[in-house]
């Protein structure tokens, strides 16, 4: 690495501190943004399937798949927000940039939902959207996806950065931040699935989108007003390029022999003025193939794409260790997708009356959201202190234990969903009776509790375990889990329809067509429950395999020179082959 880049890279791992900045005060601005933006965002999550079905003229599976593809893309694009806020802009500016993109998406969808001539006519096919109408439609929803995803890729880290993870007094508040983050997300969602959904059902889709755009705009104003109170993390080098560099150099060096002594792997020496800034990660024995990226042949100039530092390699190892955890939690979000598509469509065939009030089917997710709004404070105030005394863990239970509880509950939720659908269809077909909408509260309520455990557990896990220069990118993995889950839902629907259409007596897929009373959604739910149980076993294996970052000690350089055994190579300023300082009594591998 060129010497003149050294200071920049060190700063990339630092948050600018000011005694009057940080703490809980600036997180209030973050909470207000998420509350206001989620009013429209979650209303869209639960009601877009009906907009696609009734306004944009998709059929049953077409509207479900378009919804899950949209949501999958939204959460996939959180990676873009994470990369930008880690590498090119600070968290706040990243949030405001993507907020502007989201506002543009809302503007386009308002125009299309207002003017009937911009909407397709019914054709009875999978999709009736064509030509310029299709261009306007897909432009609007994917601008919403990019904007909403970018915000969610940067905002959680903006809030968590207000607490110094190296300060024991402050670091314990990071877990509390993510719990309250979920509380405000759920609070905004409650307003969205009641007020905004009611407006879309009774007053028009365009008016509901106007409410959404206004709320998002006010939220962006709020988060901008917090600027004087934020601890601002200085963006550094591209996390993506750092990962790519390790992979490329390791591939180039694949034929080189690894040294017996890990001290011969290359590491960066901080200059005296930045000596206290640079985090060095001790060498680990996992994924030894990646260590080849830190081998520098004698006489070779240590350029960026010829050698990587040992810490850089270890950062990639941390991300690699996270991948099995990420993948083994995605299936829960495939189950979540059903509650936002088929369960909403179930609700349209049920009795939606509560007294004289007609409850929109898309408002039924208020049940798990209310559960979360009630349970998050209880969890934070009572559960955590109680289990902290029992287990000695600062958060009561570990991140991965918390996620595991959520996975168990999600499998139970799918099993119950199948039973409820059997009852609904039996009453409707055999007795010409609609059961009450609130029968769906069982599956929604249990899944709401599951989401409370899993969502916060994953987000805190990815933030706390991430290297300092990749906090936003890593936190985006919790959203990426949602994205993969939604895409899997689309794949499963297509496969189930294809396979069951060939082998059932009626030659009709379980989820095919517009008449849910002729479909077998309950079999699909039970299929998901069985896969969820198998996936739980997979998750338990990887959770036991995972090594927390604390088990691979991290040292911060507090002097400009480190002891070590250099290989015979003259290094340019800013570089030194060394053994990363280990605790007294520890040796090298």
From TrEMBL:
<feature type="transmembrane region" description="Helical">
    <location>
        <begin position="523"/>
        <end position="542"/>
    </location>
</feature>
<dbReference type="InterPro" id="IPR036259">
    <property type="entry name" value="MFS_trans_sf"/>
</dbReference>
<feature type="transmembrane region" description="Helical">
    <location>
        <begin position="176"/>
        <end position="197"/>
    </location>
</feature>
<feature type="transmembrane region" description="Helical">
    <location>
        <begin position="399"/>
        <end position="420"/>
    </location>
</feature>
<comment type="similarity">
    <text>Belongs to the major facilitator superfamily. Phosphate:H(+) symporter (TC 2.A.1.9) family.</text>
</comment>
<dbReference type="GO" id="GO:0016020">
    <property type="term" value="C:membrane"/>
</dbReference>
<keyword id="KW-0812">Transmembrane</keyword>
<feature type="transmembrane region" description="Helical">
    <location>
        <begin position="440"/>
        <end position="463"/>
    </location>
</feature>
<dbReference type="InterPro" id="IPR000109">
    <property type="entry name" value="POT_fam"/>
</dbReference>
<dbReference type="Pfam" id="PF00854">
    <property type="entry name" value="PTR2"/>
</dbReference>
<feature type="transmembrane region" description="Helical">
    <location>
        <begin position="135"/>
        <end position="155"/>
    </location>
</feature>
<feature type="transmembrane region" description="Helical">
    <location>
        <begin position="484"/>
        <end position="503"/>
    </location>
</feature>
<feature type="transmembrane region" description="Helical">
    <location>
        <begin position="364"/>
        <end position="387"/>
    </location>
</feature>
<keyword id="KW-0472">Membrane</keyword>
<dbReference type="GO" id="GO:0022857">
    <property type="term" value="F:transmembrane transporter activity"/>
</dbReference>
<comment type="similarity">
    <text>Belongs to the major facilitator superfamily. Proton-dependent oligopeptide transporter (POT/PTR) (TC 2.A.17) family.</text>
</comment>
<feature type="transmembrane region" description="Helical">
    <location>
        <begin position="66"/>
        <end position="84"/>
    </location>
</feature>
<feature type="transmembrane region" description="Helical">
    <location>
        <begin position="209"/>
        <end position="226"/>
    </location>
</feature>
<feature type="transmembrane region" description="Helical">
    <location>
        <begin position="96"/>
        <end position="115"/>
    </location>
</feature>
<keyword id="KW-1133">Transmembrane helix</keyword>
<protein>
    <submittedName>
        <fullName>Solute carrier family 15</fullName>
    </submittedName>
</protein>
<feature type="transmembrane region" description="Helical">
    <location>
        <begin position="28"/>
        <end position="54"/>
    </location>
</feature>
């Amino acid at each position: 690495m060129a010497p003149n880049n050294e200071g920049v890279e060190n700063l990339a791992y630092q948050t600018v501190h000011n005694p009057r900045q940080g703490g809980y005060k600036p997180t209030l601005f973050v909470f207000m943004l998420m509350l206001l933006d989620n009013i429209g965002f979650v209303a869209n999550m639960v009601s877009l399937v009906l907009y696609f079905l009734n306004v944009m003229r998709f059929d049953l599976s077409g509207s479900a798949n378009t919804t899950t593809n949209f949501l999958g893309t939204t959460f996939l694009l959180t990676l873009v927000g994470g990369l930008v806020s880690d590498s090119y802009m600070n968290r706040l500016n990243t949030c405001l940039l993507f907020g502007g993109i989201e506002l543009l998406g809302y503007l386009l969808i308002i125009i299309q939902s207002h003017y009937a001539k911009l909407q397709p006519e019914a054709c009875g096919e999978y999709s009736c959207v064509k030509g310029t109408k299709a261009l306007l439609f897909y432009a609007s929803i994917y601008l919403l996806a990019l904007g909403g995803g970018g915000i969610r890729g940067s905002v959680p880290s903006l809030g968590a950065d207000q607490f110094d993870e190296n300060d024991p007094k402050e670091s314990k508040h990071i877990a509390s931040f993510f719990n309250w983050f979920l509380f405000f997300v759920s609070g905004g969602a409650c307003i969205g699935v009641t007020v905004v959904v009611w407006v879309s059902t009774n007053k028009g889709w365009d008016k509901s989108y106007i409410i959404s755009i206004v709320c998002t705009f006010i939220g962006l104003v709020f988060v901008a007003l917090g600027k004087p109170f934020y601890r601002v993390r200085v963006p550094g080098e591209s996390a993506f390029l750092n990962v790519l560099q390790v992979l490329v150099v390791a591939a180039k060096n694949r034929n080189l022999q690894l040294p017996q002594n890990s001290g011969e792997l290359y590491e960066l020496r901080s200059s005296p003025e930045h000596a206290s800034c640079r985090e060095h990660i001790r060498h680990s024995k996992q994924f030894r193939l990646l260590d080849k990226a830190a081998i520098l042949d004698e006489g070779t100039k240590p350029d960026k794409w010829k050698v990587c530092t040992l810490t850089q390699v270890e950062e990639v190892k941390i991300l690699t260790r996270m991948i099995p955890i990420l993948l083994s939690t995605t299936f829960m979000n495939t189950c979540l997708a059903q509650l936002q598509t088929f369960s909403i469509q179930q609700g349209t065939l049920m009795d939606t009356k509560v007294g004289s009030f007609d409850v929109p089917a898309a408002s039924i997710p208020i049940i798990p959201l209310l559960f979360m709004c009630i349970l998050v404070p209880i969890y934070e105030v009572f559960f955590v202190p109680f289990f902290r005394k029992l287990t000695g863990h600062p958060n009561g239970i570990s991140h991965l234990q918390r996620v595991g509880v959520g996975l168990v509950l999600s499998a139970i939720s799918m099993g119950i969903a199948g039973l409820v659908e059997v009852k609904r269809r039996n009453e409707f077909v055999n007795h010409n009776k609609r059961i009450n909408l609130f029968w769906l509260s069982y599956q929604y309520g249990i899944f709401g509790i599951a989401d409370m455990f899993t969502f916060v557990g994953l987000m805190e896990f990815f933030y706390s375990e991430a290297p300092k220069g990749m906090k936003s990118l890593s936190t985006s993995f919790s959203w990426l889990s949602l994205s993969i889950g939604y895409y899997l839902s689309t794949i499963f629907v297509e496969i189930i329809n294809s396979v069951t259409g060939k082998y059932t007596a009626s030659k009709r897929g379980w989820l095919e067509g517009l008449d849910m009373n002729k479909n077998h959604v309950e079999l699909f739910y039970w299929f998901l429950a069985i896969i969820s149980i198998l996936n739980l076993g997979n998750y338990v294996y990887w959770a036991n395999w995972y090594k927390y970052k604390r088990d691979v000690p991290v040292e911060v350089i507090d002097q400009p020179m480190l002891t070590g055994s250099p290989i015979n190579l003259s290094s340019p300023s800013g570089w030194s082959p060394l053994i990363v300082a280990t605790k007294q009594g520890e040796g090298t591998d």
